[in-house]
Design goal:
The protein is an alpha/beta fold. Helix content is 42%, strand content 12%. The longest helix is centred in the C-terminal third of the chain and has 18 residues, at 245-262.
Length: 266
């Protein structure tokens, strides 16, 4: 089986330890991986993946070209690199043009780390510039003390896709990390993709299966969220769900391969 992991993160050697520590502090988790390229490639081989999509987010505007430069330097036929952009970056259209000319077909937006509201005027300017040129993976949902201050709720993403119907969207974490009831109300069943990353540990099997079946298995992607989890561990968790073989094959392989083909990845 040609397994595609559509949600992974790799960090440069010099900042990997700080990045992993930030993830641990934010999500109150213990992470065993160090998040470097070599660490991930070992996990890639262990899981016998076919392809993996690599994401990184510029948490402040000035980091945008530096992070994209680093992503563009990752040259491995097994890895597909998505770029980053930030609402406050001074030359959004120029950077998107640079990424497109470099063959990058996707972007990752992590509003909670990048500190922007996905229905803000600044965010809408990004979507206008993106149009249908990029596939956009949104981090959605989070645990915050004041829910009204959540940058990326499922309800907000539903507003985004209503206002920008041509935007090609993947909603991470089965539509909303720790906000799955809201995801079921506002996103599940919409014409977007969702991925399985950072969800299987937190939900009963029957709820995961319900979300997948209600949304439509053809629009579900496998994602490990490395370095938070290992791809092999997540693959085994997905395999243990009460899904038939055809549906597991779609989530682990066929859906991801179809999307990568649309992005021009062989």
């Amino acid at each position: 089986m040609k397994v595609v992991d559509f949600h992974t993160h790799i960090f440069p050697e010099g900042i990997a330890s700080r990045a992993v520590e930030q993830l641990e502090n934010h999500y109150q988790l213990q992470i065993k991986n160090n998040g470097t390229f070599d660490n991930f490639m070992n996990k890639f081989k262990e899981a016998e993946l076919y392809k993996a999509v690599v994401h990184a987010a510029a948490v402040v505007p000035r980091q945008v070209p530096t992070v994209n430069d680093w992503l563009l330097k990752i040259k491995d036929e097994n890895l597909v690199n998505f770029g980053t952009i930030h609402p406050e970056y001074e030359d959004i259209e120029g950077e998107l043009t640079r990424l497109k000319e470099a063959g990058v077909g996707g972007l990752k937006l992590h509003p909670d780390f990048q500190k922007f509201d996905i229905i803000s005027k600044e965010a809408y300017a990004i979507y206008e510039a993106i149009g249908a040129d990029f596939l956009v993976l949104f981090h959605v949902g989070d645990q915050v003390e004041e829910p009204a201050n959540n940058y990326s709720t499922p309800q907000k993403l539903a507003q985004v896709i209503a206002d920008f119907p041509e935007l090609r969207v993947i909603a991470a974490h089965l539509g909303g990390y720790q906000m799955w009831q809201e995801a079921k109300e506002y996103l599940i069943g919409e014409d977007i993709y969702i991925d399985t990353s950072s969800a299987l540990d937190f939900l009963p099997e029957e709820v995961v299966v319900e979300i997948i079946n209600t949304h439509g298995v053809d629009k579900v992607l496998f994602g490990s969220d490395f370095p938070i989890k290992d791809p092999l561990t997540e693959m085994r968790q997905l395999t243990d769900l009460g899904l038939d073989l055809v549906d597991r094959l779609k989530i682990l392989s066929k859906n991801g391969l179809k999307l990568l083909e649309e992005l021009g990845v062989e």
